[in-house]
Amino acid sequence: MINEENLKKIFPRDLKEIPSKHLPPSIIQKKYLTNGQLIESKSSNNFQVFSPIFINDQKVLLGEHPMLSEHEVLGVLENAKNAWKKGCSEWATTTTNERIKCVETFVKEMQKQKEIVVRTLMWEICKSYPDAEKEFDRTIIYIKDTIQALKDLDRISSRFVIEQNIIGQIRRSPLGIVLCMGPFNYPLNETFTTLIPALIMGNVVIFKPAKFGVLLWNPLLEAFAKSFPPGVINVVYGDGGEVIAPLMKSGFIDVLAFIGSGRVADILKKQHPFPHRLRSILGLEAKNTAIVLDDADLQLTIDELLLGTLSYNGQRCTAVKIIFLQKNIAKKFIPQFQDKVSQMKIAMPWEDGAKITPLPEDGKCQYLKSLVEDACNKGADLLFGGKSFNSIFMPTIVSNINSGTRLWKEEQFGPIIPIVIFDEIETPINYIIESSYGQQASIFSSDQLMISKLIDNLVNQVSRVNINSQCQRSPDSFPFTGRKDSAEGTLSVSDALRVFSIRTLVAAKENTINKEILSNITYNHQSKFLNTDFIF
Predict the structure, then answer these.
(1) For every residue of 487-513, which 3-state class applies, written as one string?
(2) Using CB atoms within 10 A of its CB, is residue 352 exposed (0-12), middle (13-18) or buried (19+)?
(3) What is the C-alpha to C-alpha distance for residues 246 and 31, in angstroms, rounded to an integer?
(4) Three-state secondary structure along 223-275?
(5) CATH superfamily name and code, 53-283
(6) Residue 346 near residue 392, CB atoms below 8 Å
């Protein structure tokens, strides 16, 4: 049985216990990226970054990064404005092919930094080393897929259409200056799912890393500087009130790309003086539900929900956050599921087979413990777990959750698995209908008619219904979005290109003079927008 003393032994007592290839990085960063240069911050208030990993009850110091002043941030904004020039800059008006070349250069430079990025990612947010590698590799694939998707989109656009005696060419043009803010749980991959589409479509970007997962960007600053024209990509650091508020209040941010909490998103949007002009692409909270019916394949369901609830400690917006079990299958499911959960290896992220690792957020264990205590005080049963030490919280199963508990509504974003046992199918359906969130749901059953009924009930409540499989984002070619308070805008390899751009049309009446003008412009390559070039 795991107790507090066992949890304590999971942490290393000395650096000598850590394999040399996995030793913590030491990154003293004093510079930020703007106008194509790495500029040393004049602020003396550098922020110290500690790992969630403790050695002898002390968090490991990984390094520090600058905390920019409002004056420095507004200087970055001026550089971004110059790089955009109200849509008339070289970057904003360059060809699709030239932007693709810049991104391809960046990919090559980024790949050179894989080892240090992955190791820093592991130490900063305690993602297991294989998962950190997977995040890096998946990000590279995502960027390459984005390039291919843009080529396909551009090929379709490289022709004229004639309708009702009007000749037209429809292409996509950039929106302006994008403020990009990613999440801590996928600080690399999720950030690039907005940052790369924004850049490759011709926008100018100001990027602020998440609160956790900051130092891993340090090796990539030089890669950005080498790959893009000055001012096109800018990276800032600091407190949100000091750094982000001035940017939003300036009114010069055209697009907000934010992945995080709805509360913060609302604050940011309200700071903008022209909210009707602000385009928002938001990935917010979710309380994804799994509905397990009596006729579900037991082993398949257990395997899928083990991954769905506890991958990366349940710290995923796509994680299954609550399970509804039909009464008859609950008797078989719960003991077998509990046995599987109890076998999850709690370990340091570099250890083979590590499944449960330390949590990055300060005070997270106390928060999770308060959710469990609240549920138990209101009639729920703690079946497994509930213990913590320092930054590790055991995987925890709480059954008989009711609507009066915080776990019923709050997104726990951690390794707690709430279970509800039901008789009538209306119980989980009504839960999803009444929920504030609407990202995904999973159905586990072999009854085709019941699955059909549930699909028809759920597709207008959530944006993805998974059949006999966990909730997830992949593949990146599928649309990723949410209803209600879970998202704004759609992200996938192709959808992201569209949300960071707008359809723009050049049109002319079909007559001799206009035909000659359009023919000469395209033949002589006089316009970067109006052309019939085919990108191979």
Answers:
(1) EECCECHHHHHHHCEEEEEEEEECCHH
(2) exposed
(3) 20
(4) HHHHHCCCCCEEECCCCHHHHHHHHHHHCCCCEEEEECCHHHHHHHHHHCCCH
(5) Aldehyde Dehydrogenase; Chain A, domain 1 (3.40.605.10)
(6) yes
Q: Are 63 and 252 in contact (CB under 8 A)?
A: no
Residue 485 CA neighbour count, 13 Å, CB half: 20
What count of other Cβ atoms lies within 10 Å of the Cβ of residue 410?
Answer: 15
Beta partners for 398? 382, 418
Phi, psi values for residue 190, rounded to 5°:
-65, -35
13-27 pLDDT per residue, tens: 999 999 999 999 999
Tell me: pLDDT of 426 over 60.
Answer: yes
> Is the per-residue pLDDT at 8 higher than 90?
no
Show the tokens assigned to 252.
């010069």
Nearest CA-CA partner of 431 in 416, 417, 441, 445:
441
Q: Hey, what are 183's tokens?
A: 């999440």
Q: What is the pTM of this model?
A: 0.95
Query: At a CB cut-off of 8 Å and minimum separation 6, what does 53 contact?
Result: 11, 12, 24, 59, 60, 123, 126, 348, 349, 358, 391
On whether the CB atoms of residues 173 and 504 are closer than 8 A, the answer is: yes
Query: What is the reported pLDDT for 2?
Result: 62
Sheet with 161-163: strands ordered across: 161-163, 166-174, 501-509
Each domain of the chain, given as residue ranges in start order, spans: 53-283, 288-476
CA angle 245, 36, 240 (to 5 degrees): 15
Mean predicted confidence (pLDDT) in 346-375: 97
Phi-psi region of 166 (alpha: psi -120 to 50; beta: other; left: phi over 0): beta
DSSP annotation string for 410-430: S---SSEEEEEEESSTHHHHH
- As a whole number of angstroms, the distance between CA 388 and CA 381 comes to 18
| Closest alpha carbon to 259 in 314, 361, 181 | 181
Buried b (16+ CB within 10 A) or exposed e, 357-388: bbbbbeebbebbbebbebbeebebeebbbbbb
Kindly give the interhelix angle for 96-111 and 114-125, rounded to the nearest 10 degrees.
Answer: 70
Please give the pLDDT value at position 205: 98
pLDDT-derived band of residue 197, with 50, 70 and 90 as boundaries?
very high
Predicted pLDDT at 533: 87
The highest-level CATH class for domain 288-476 is alpha beta
The whole-number pLDDT of residue 10 equals 94
User: Is the preceding omega at residue 475 within 30 degrees of 0, hence cis?
Assistant: yes
Hey, which bits of 82-165 come out as E strands?
161-163
pLDDT at 447 (0 to 100): 97
- Give the pLDDT confidence score for residue 3 in this predicted structure: 61
Q: Residue written as tokens 């028809």?
A: 456
Angle at 175 between CA 170 and CA 180, to 5 degrees: 135
